[in-house]
Design goal:
By secondary structure, this protein is mostly helical. The chain contains 5 helices and 3 strands, in the order αααββαβα.
Length: 121
Amino acid sequence: MKNLYLFLLIAILSNACAMDIMKPQQLNISVSYMQTADAISDAKKAIQLKNNTLIGFDQRGLKVPGVKADELDKILTHCPVQRVSNMGDIVKSKEHLTQMQKVHEYSLKYNQAILAASSCQ
């Protein structure tokens, strides 16, 4: 019985360690930053740092610009996704809509560059 508990403890701890290794590197992104930033330049910097984190939104489920819905699960096994806040499916004003469109455009370009240069696919 002790061997079983010891085995389970080791299995749980080793799984926790493996999960820690798989944590995505945080991207320094914000909605205000992405409205004026150069997505391709930022993606090149991330690629140099071997950071293949993609950008996504919670909109009635996870949406990752540049990734088809039917390919998302496969991509997620290889590339982490950092979600951008304030990008839900509720538009609060015309200004908010414009902001969301710019962030989506940045994310699409960024993700396409990361996908092209990484082993996410």
